What does this fold into?
Amino acid sequence: MRTSVNFSSNGLRLAGILFTPDNRTGERLPAVVVSHPGGGVKEQTASIYAQRLADKGYAALVFDAAYQGESEGEPRFLEDPFQRSEDVKSAVTFLTTRDDVDPTRIGALGICASGGYVPFAAQTDHRIKAVATVSGLDIGDYLSNGLGRTQDPSVLQEMLDAAGALRTAEAQGAEPNYQIWAPPSAEGLEQAPELFRDAHDYYRTPRGQHERSENKWPLQSIDRIAQFDAYAKIAMISPRPLLMIVGSKADTAYFSEEAVAKAAEPKELFVVDGATHVDLYDLDQYVTPAVDKLDEFFGKGLAG
It folds into this structure.
C-alpha cells in the first residue's frame, strides 16, 4: 500500500510516500526512512527499495528532499547537505507520530549522496536505531576532490569564487547558474568513468528518468557542500549497527570502505558481486541481494 504524506522540515513542506505491507496485522510496524540520491526524486530508486522493504514487513518512507521534486524550497534543486540531514531527522519525527509505526523501531537507509546524509544525521539522532547505505558517497569529498580524489585543488577554489559571485548576481536579479549531475548525452562518454556513463543511462533514459528529476543543482550549493564531511564522526553511530552496501565494480566503493574502517562496532561492509554504483539503483539481479541483506540487517537492528 502507498499513501501520499506531507511533513515539515525547517519550516518547509516535504512531500513523501509511505509504503506499508499489504498483509498488515494491526500491530505497530518497524519502519525505515529511505533517502534518495542527489539529483533524484522519491519515485526513482528510493521507491524501489521502499517497496521491497514493505513487501518484507516494514513501513518505508520516501520523500523529496527540500528544494527537490514536489517538496518546497527556493532556489529549486539546491543541494544543502545540512538541510538534507535535517530532512532525514524530520522524516523520523514524522514516523514517530504515526499510530501504525513503532517509534522505538525506526531505521534509515541512504542511497548514493544520501549514503552520506543518513549516517551524518544518525550520528546525533539516537532515534535512528539502525543505519544502512547503498552505494554511499560523501558529496563533500566528491565535489571538492573529484572521483578518486584526482581533481586539482584549484578547481574547488574556482567554483567557490564563482559561487560567491553568483550569490551577489542573484541578489541583483540574475537567474541561478545550474550545474548538471548526470551527463545529458552519451556522446563522448566512452572513456569517462563508469559512474558518469551509468548515471547518464539511469537518469537520462527511460530506464530511470522522471519528469521532476531535472538532475541539476545551482552552483551556490558548492559553498555548502565543500564544508560537509559525512563520515568524520561516524563512530558516534555506535553502539547502533551500521551496514554499508557497495558493488564490487563501483568506482565509489572507497567511500564506504573508508567509512566502515572509521566506524565503531557493530559495523559491516557488504559487497554485491558484479555491481557498479548505479547497478544497485534498479537492476534486479543486484537489488535483490542488497534488499535481502537489508532485511536481515533491519530485522536484527529493529527487533522489538
In short: Residues 153-171 form the longest helix (19 residues).
